[in-house]
Amino acid sequence: MGNQVEKITHLSYEEVPTADPNGLDTDDGPRIGVSYIFSNDDDDDLDNPNAKGEGDPEEEEGQQYEKCNELEYAVFYRGECVYDRRAGDVRIYSPENLLNKCKAGDLVEFVAKSQYPHWAVYVGDFQVVHLHQAEIKNDFLTDASQGRRGRIVNDVYKFKTLNPEAVVQNAMEQVGTKDRDLSWRNSECFAAWCRFGRREFKVGGEIRIGKQPYMFRIQLSEKKSHTLEFQSLEDLIMEKRRNDQIGKSAVLLELASHLNPEEEGTADHNGN
Q1: What is the Cα–Cα distance from 86 to 47, expressed in whole angstroms?
Q2: pLDDT tier at 96, thresholds 50, 70, 90
Q3: Where would you tag: which of 6, 77, 166, 260 has the fewest CB atoms within 10 A of its CB?
Q4: Whole-prediction pTM value?
Q5: How many whole angstroms separate alpha carbon 196 and alpha carbon 160?
């Protein structure tokens, strides 16, 4: 069901009871627990000297990112599209040029070949707040990028956005939070929570009984797609990030070996 993730062991829903970290539950209905045991995907890349693009400039540029090896995704919650990414839609910039594009409250994604994407919240004054090494940190954007190129990703999630002041406040209030006090699995979940304020991005924020409500559609070609089902958005994000890290070619090989891609006509869960 899409949880075939390296470095992750899936526990059954009955084994790990979880709940919303803030104790908030605005929706009716019972919940069950889902959990992953995993290593922090962001830390593995940012602390690897070979992942920072050091060395020959031409080789560095070639290893930064290959947009042609980027998958197109769509995520649906009970038929409604809540995430949509089209390959090559958003231009990628060097960290220095990205600074000229950012406004306070923007979400920034740093990308590089064979690495997990790293998300951050731009808070102004050339700085970002991000989850790195199991701690929420306030760093200069150029330092947080670790040599990666980046793009603004405000619009990939389709939830209602908080105002920029609230986004920055959410981020800054969490600076210094670390280890067991963290409520987010990775940098993407943290940054998205800051911008949208939704508990779905928190650990155990929404666990439901019944049919898996999230549909993760991976576009394989113009006419073919494959759909995975998930119980929670945070689990889906973990799989999406793994796909980003290994790249389109590797994902297609996996699906060719283990799954039968669906025709778009049968796999399209777009509720629009």
Answers
A1: 29
A2: very high
A3: 260
A4: 0.76
A5: 6
